[in-house]
Amino acid sequence: MALDDDLKSDDQNARGDVAANLSRKKATPPQPAKKLLIKLRTVSLKRYMALPRFQPENLETNKTIFERVNEIAMKKGCTPSQLALAWLHHQGNDVCPIPGTTKIENFNDNIGALSVKLTPQEMTELESFAAVDVVKGDRFPDGFVPTWKNSDTPLSSWKAV
User: Fold this and answer.
1) CB of 96 within 8 A of CB of 114?
2) Does the predicted model carry a pTM greater than 0.70?
3) Structural domain boundaries of the chain?
4) Residues 96, 70: contact at Cβ < 8 Å?
């Protein structure tokens, strides 16, 4: 199957999965940027090309962040997605991630995140290199306005001050 055919078929099932579906796989040793780009192509590079975080000027920094998350996940014996969910679980009792999936395999992976325990040092390490101000490029392209930012919630107390 040609790359273009693969991209077309993958675009038909396009979803915004964590880290371009790369994080659902078991953690593997860090990979050079070229291998990461090849993996991105297999999950539909076309789908992610317009996203600022995948632009060439941002990709190198973000690839490094992904590799570091992958290293920690490998040490913990979990997937990068499980590590991300575990980090969320460690944010406090008032935080409840709601991961979406249509596949039992991914559901089981999400449940597996509950068994991933992070030390305060690991939390600090993750937050040091994966903070919002460290990731390069916006999440959405210019002109895209997330609807939640201007939402009109039923109760004003639901909005953060």
Assistant:
1) no
2) no
3) 29-140
4) no
* Residues contacting residue 24 through CB under 8 Å, at least 6 positions apart: 17, 18, 79, 81, 106, 109
Residues 75-85, buried b or exposed e (16+ Cβ, 10 A)? ebebbbbbbbb
Cα three-residue angle 92-63-65, rounded to 5 degrees: 30
Q: What's the CA dihedral at 66, 18, 86, 155 to 10 degrees?
A: 130
161 residues of the chain, pLDDT tens digit each: 343 343 333 333 333 444 544 445 555 555 455 555 555 555 555 565 677 777 778 778 878 888 888 999 999 999 999 999 999 988 888 888 888 888 999 999 999 999 999 999 999 998 888 777 778 877 777 766 666 566 665 666 655 55
